[in-house]
Please model this.
Amino acid sequence: MATKKELIQEFQKNPDRYWKVKLFDELGFKRRQCKNCGKFFWSLKDQDTCNDSTCRSYDFIGNPPTKKPLDIFQTWKKIQKFFEDNGHTALNRYPTVCRWYPLYFTIAGIVNFYRVDEEGNLDWEVPANPSILVQPCLRFNDIPNVGLNSKSFTCFGMIQQTSFFNGKQGYWKDKCIELDFNLLTKVFGIKPEEINFIEDAWIGYGAFGSSLEYHVQGIELGNAVFTEFAGNLENYREMKEKVIDMGAGWERFTWITQGTPTSYDAVFGPVLEKIKKACGIKYDKKFFLKYAKISGKVNLDEYADLKVVLEKIASQLGISGEELKKNIEPLQALYSIADHTRALVFAIADGGLPSNVAGGYNLRVILRRALSFIDKFNWNLKIEDVADWHINYLKKMFPELEERRKEIEEVLQAEINKYKNTKERVNRIIQSFSGRKLSEEELITLYDSEGVTPEQLGIEVESDFYSKVTERHMVEKKEEEKILLDVSDLPKTKILYYDDVLKFKAKVLKVSGNFVVLDQTAFYPTSGGQEHDTGHIAGLRVVDVFKLHSVIVHQLESCNLKEGQFVDCEVDKKRREILKRHHDAIHIISGAARKILGFHVHQHGAEKTEEKARIDITHFESLSEEEEEKIENLANKIVEKGLPIKKYVMKRGEAERKYGFGIYAGGYIPSKVLRIVEIPGFDVEACGGLHGNNTKDVGFIKILKTKRIADGLVRIEIKAGEVALEYMKEKEKILKEVAEKLGVKEEKVPEAVKKLFEDWKQKRKQLKKMGRKE
Amino acid sequence: METEEKAIEKDGEERMISRKEWTELKKKEKILKEATEILRVEEKDLPRVIERFKREIKEMEEKLQSL
Model:
């Protein structure tokens, strides 16, 4: 098996094993094959084609099959109540910016429960079983479809029904489909014969299984995935604990109850009305209703050229492609603006930042796309206002958006200003290409390096352009580990460095050149941005220490050790203490920056050396001197307060529940247990580094400089403790020397330097003048 | 009894200096920065540059007197 298609074919050898559930037998659902798409599906009605949108139009538009129209909040309340009544725990949403798993964004409800174990495999963190929640998700691979096919979003709510089944707890396929069927029929009032369950399969991150999609009148409302195999298609095993992962469309459920032409009309509520009013948009509702029914079938991924799609739809409507384009383009723009702004509201509220780095790139793409639409149609519309309208509408369900309103506006404003600045460069860029047609690669590069969208250059791009751009920025790239020696035969090294041990005895387990592995060690290996310890092993100088999987390797200056030998070891105390202080100081600066600059500040990278330390934070502009001063002052106040620096080892789930996902400030940690470093009331992070016991032990912290190192990234360099003091004393010494040379008091030095300089310039001038006279 | 002003304390590791001393150092740092910005030189180079200016002024004065 290699592909999803092949997996489905494999499952189809035994469809009852993978797809048939008790309910189908009880109610008389029959398995049929769609004569149009060829897929197998289960229905009560004798149908020869299935309910998938490619095989059936959106018959619910204008004629909803449900009891009564519901807005998004009413829809969720009904779903929540139903599942709670059926033994599910309703969970709060998780952040849209994913910090607990190597993804930039939460792309599906199930991602909330994904973690990585020590071996790098998929692991699960389950706060309740079974559970239900609505999870705002961000996906950027469907941008061209947004606004065009009535149902695509970059930000959508996924109703996530989850059950972990081990034979005793949770439930499996029969119960899942029974619940989903009852939700559709009893809660929403959809007639049983309107429902199709289409056979499918799902291949995810290290796990896969069969699935049943449920479709009603042309729209897929949900997909119940039965995850039962761990591994990949070539190498897998049946899981002891199987997972029900049912994801349903919150927007789609709302839409089907309202039967509006598009899902956007159903879910954006008053926001859309305000946008329409601000833009002065009026449209032929009858025409649009017809268009919406047909366009729902459109999946632009299948077409390289938008014109071809529009011509196809236009011919069905009996008009020209150009006429259709003229009619729908403003609406597509309007819906896209509403969607993209909602995505930005959630992402920024959760600490995301439009930028040129990592996932921030995708946020920039959608913001600039929205702004390009406003420019194109010359609308009097402000994205900041649209964001405000969204917050007003959503705050009763997501009060955290209200709490972040000011910051969202600030971040958007800064990014909009950057966009305006790039516009000024557009003409120069157009001229530099002197009329030559730009290749797609050049356009992507132009977007990457200059932030200029094809729309700004007046270039129409193929429908998958933005998918190609954003795909480059969806998943965190993991640096490949350098394997210097084979440690696969060695046991995990016993770690002593968390116990403040500096002198210890150990047994040499492996020697390879100057590399040595001991059975236990107090030498801290370079990790989490903290440099390694140095010291001596049997009198031989340790020059590097690093981790290979769970084995710690010491590199010596020279080595004459023998395997099996017992050795006396000693860590360099002075270096250890400086590194510890610098690590503490970085946590303090991180907390201070977040408090001064805002919730969007996260650690992007850090380094702690003996000489200095640095932290790269996400922030949308360079820091002013005043901001630098404020951060430094707050950091030093924390030092002076003498707050305890507490360290705990906690179960991952317990730590997440107690402290939230802010603990992953430095990135996700592949472990079931986390070491938490907490400065109570100020900062808490999961961190494997070495720390002192009290902030006052850090000594004063000095910000050396701050620098914008990339768009959206600011580097703060610091020194702490005695290293900072030496640095400041050196400055004091220089000032004293300069004052002596100038024969003035220290506070008069600038004045004296200025006078000296003026004097020098004047004398030079006089000399030149005299020279000319001669 | 230790006061906030007088800071050195023994708690396993030596505390650095008092807030007053630190503020004084920061004040001096600011003065030094201001001075280096006038001549657009690195702080460490300032004494040498001052010395050079003084020497050159003296040389120019001598030259001017001889003209």
Observations:
- The mean pLDDT of chain B is 81.
- Residues 23 and 29 of chain B are 10 Å apart (CA to CA).
